[in-house]
Amino acid sequence: MTPKFVVLGPPGAGKTTVGLLLAERLGVAFRDTDDDIVAAAGKPISDIFTDDGEPAFRAMEEEAVAEGLKGHDGVLALGGGAVLSATTRARLADHTVVFLNVGTAEGVRRTGLSTARPLLAGVNPRATFKSLLDARLPLYREVATIEVLTDDLTPEQVVDEVLRPTGPAQGT
Ligand SMILES: Nc1ncnc2c1ncn2[C@@H]1O[C@H](COP(=O)(O)OP(=O)(O)OP(=O)(O)O)[C@@H](O)[C@H]1O
Ligand SMILES: O=C(O)C1=C[C@@H](O)[C@@H](O)[C@H](O)C1
Ligand SMILES: [Mg+2]
What residue ranges do the domains of the chain occupy? Predict the structure, then answer.
């Protein structure tokens, strides 16, 4: 059993929104490792960060991704920071991996109203988002087989790009 598509990218890129639509379009199940972690821990991600710390969260995430890659054959969305793990990046080899990219301005706009993302909860979300994106961009690209810049696309259009027979249009 292996996912048809693994979806990743920074917070607000649309992993959950687009992942669900993509699964609907393909008639397959959708799974999100953030949800698996919340279910396993019995508390929200913000509480895991506060009570147990980020390293504990990353260990749970590594396990959740490994389980998802083994046990799910639909669309699997990963948490925004899952690629920080070299073990996870190695496990993503040979999978079809969609990197949903989003620029800082649009990413901050999309995540701005939520308090559910502990890493973006600081005083300057824009600077935090940009440094997170800068640090992770090479890691997303290391594992991605498809990249879509989502800033000016609706979620439906992002799905269209992912499913284009020749792959997403570049630079248009
Ligand atoms: N292409 C898009 N155009 C406009 N809004 C979008 C698009 N994709 C997602 N959104 C909106 O941005 C917000 C964040 O989307 P979503 O929760 O799917 O992101 P995510 O990548 O799963 O984030 P996280 O890493 O926090 O789980 C939601 O309000 C969603 O409706
Ligand atoms: O970008 C990140 O590091 C995170 C993104 C979310 O999906 C969650 O996995 C968590 O809030 C951490
Ligand atoms: Mg999500």
Answer: 5-162
Condensed to tens digits (0 to 9), the pLDDT of residues 120-142 reads 666 677 888 999 999 999 999 99
pTM, whole model, 2 decimals? 0.92
CATH topology of domain 5-162: Rossmann fold (3.40.50)
> Which atom in ligand 2 lies closest to the alpha carbon of residue 10?
1
Task: Give the model confidence (pLDDT) of 1-34 as tens digits.
Answer: 888 999 999 999 999 999 999 999 999 999 999 9
| 122 assigned to a ligand binding site | no
| Residue 128: partners with Cβ closer than 8 Å, 6 or more residues away | 119, 120, 122
**How far is the centre of ligand 1, averaged over its atoms, from the C-alpha of 14 (Å)?**
4
50 among annotated binding-site residues: no
Structural contact between residues 13 and 102, judged by C-beta atoms closer than 8 angstroms: yes
Alpha carbons 71 and 8: distance in angstroms, whole number = 18
**Separation of 166 CA from ligand 2 center, angstroms?**
31
